[in-house]
Amino acid sequence: MSGGPQLSPSRCSGGSRVALLVTGASGMRLPVHLLRALAASPAVERVHLVASAGASQVLRHELGDPPGARGLVEAASLASEEAAKVVVHRDSELDAPISSGSYRLAGTVVLPCSAATLGALATGAGTTLVHRAGAVALKERWPLVLGFRETPLSIVHLENLRRLAYAGAVVLPPIPAFYVERPATAAAPSGGDAAPAETLERFLDAYALRVVDHLGLPAPVATAALRLPP
């Protein structure tokens, strides 16, 4: 019997484990849609959700929901069986399972990823659970997806993005997918163009699909109706 550390597999009894780390950049509807997609996926057993202090402030301004990760769960309006998959951690909870590489994950997503978080991950100068969980993904070489939300980009941003991409992270900015088509069952409003709210929802769902795909997970049924070019 080995005396070394015992690794916890990235898949538990019913599926995979994913970490969703939410930081203080604009775009709180992005993690809400991704949380819905992950929780709805039969391939996902557990979603470890962390919101930074900055994320709590932005969440309050953008969605008016209670601050913190529990506010994101409320905004996602998950069914009871989906909500049961979500485990909420404080950003100060450095003893959480996701702070250790022996607790294997299918992937880690930072969405939205703030410039401050980007810098902490690029330099290894982390002080919070978000920073630690991102660093663990890099050192363990499982997928780390960064939804960086900043524009225009300075040379500091570009250098940090380059360093993280070189280290193995996937830089996946939330850029609108203009090629996403309306499901065949949806009727177009008069004039032929989708209403602004519908267009935004399609973009958010399409982006969530891209993230799920980069985690190597199957698309959840709830968003599979989006038609992408073959």
Task: Give a quick precis of the structure.
With 230 residues, the protein is an alpha/beta fold.
Give me some keywords for this one.
230 residues; alpha/beta; Rossmann fold; 8 helices; 7 strands; 38% helix; globular; disordered N terminus
Number of domains: 1
Strand content: 15-25%
Helix content: 25-40%
CATH architecture: 3-Layer(aba) Sandwich
Structural class by helix and strand composition: alpha/beta
Please name the CATH topology. Answer: Rossmann fold
Radius of gyration: 18 Å
Write the H/E string, N to C.
EEHEHHHEEHHEHEH
The N- to C-terminal Cα distance equals: 50 Å
Mean of all residue-level pLDDT scores: 88
| Number of helices, where a helix is a run of at least 4 consecutive DSSP H or I residues | 8
Poorly predicted parts = 1-6
Number of strands: 7
Question: Can you offer a commentary on this structure?
Answer:
This protein is of the alpha/beta class and 230 residues long. It has a single domain (14-222), classed as 3-Layer(aba) Sandwich (Rossmann fold). The chain is built from 8 helices and 7 strands. Strands 1, 2, 3, 4, 5, 6 and 7 form a 7-stranded mixed sheet that branches. Helix 1 (29-40) crosses helix 3 (69-76), helix 1 crosses helix 8 (196-214) and helix 5 crosses helix 7. It is globular, with a radius of gyration of 18 Å. It starts with 10 loop residues before the first strand and ends in a 16-residue tail after the last helix.
